[in-house]
Amino acid sequence: MAEFVILLGGCERISRRPYDAYLYIDNFMFGRHVEKQQILRFLLEHNTPGPPAVLPVIGGNGVGKKTLAACICDDERVRAHFSKVLQLNGDDLSRITDHERMSGRTLVIIELASYVDEHVWTKFYHSITNMDRESKVIILGRNSELEKFGTVKPISLNCLSLEEYSYLFKTLAFGSANPTDHPQLVAMVEEFVVLLGGSLISANVLADALRKNLSARFWLYRLNWARDTIRKNISRFGAHPHVLFRRGRPMHLIHETTH
């Protein structure tokens, strides 16, 4: 039993109530526990002979790919394991020719807004074959075709579940205030969640405004604004604003009057 306790002491602690971890642990990303552990295992344990291993992280617009990558880079074990972190985008790939920039054990994070030409990728990957054997590459992108550039099984990031998203929005909207002290506002939370359509960006922006004014009149004003905005976009473009944003299409935002 003593040996078992010592063994457990060397393992990373995971909250039994992961939702509350967002409130009480510094630099802790809400949700994504499984994905974070998968990436950490790839970075710290997956060492194979040959060129650097490549892990694609695929997910829609605004699901938290960059946030997850930033959280991983901030992990003490990752910072200790890699001598440098190099962040690139699609335009950088065709310009990488300086091997000295990548000397030592390096973590390369590539953010791809769109699909990258296979010839460009092949040329880039060839340029990093002389990197340290334990160097790693992570691709962040929306296009599932990027999976073919990986050397390991890709990780797919989906939107948060409705339960997770609802909890996150409620936590952000009330901040340090006790929701039970504001029953009228609690009643509006679920409709806000449905109207936002799972967008993390919209949840953070709207919750920041709501948190600064915990009056039922102000919350109802913002709720009506959200309803009108969604109705206008569905009428004009045939889709929810979040869907339009994810597809890179234009959307209509109703001008807010001073309230």
Give the tags.
five-stranded parallel sheet; 259 residues; 11% strand; 12 helices; single chain; 2 domains; alpha/beta
Describe this structure as you would to a colleague.
The protein is α/β, with parallel strands linked by helices and 259 residues long. The chain has 2 domains: 28-157, P-loop containing nucleotide triphosphate hydrolases (Rossmann fold); 162-246. The protein is built from 12 helices and 5 strands. It has helices spanning 2-9, 18-24, 33-44, 65-73, 76-81, 90-93, 118-127, 162-174, 183-196, 200-211, 216-237, 241-246; strands spanning 53-59, 84-89, 106-112, 136-141, 155-157. The chain has a 5-stranded parallel β-sheet. The chain starts with a helix and ends in a 13-residue tail after the last helix.
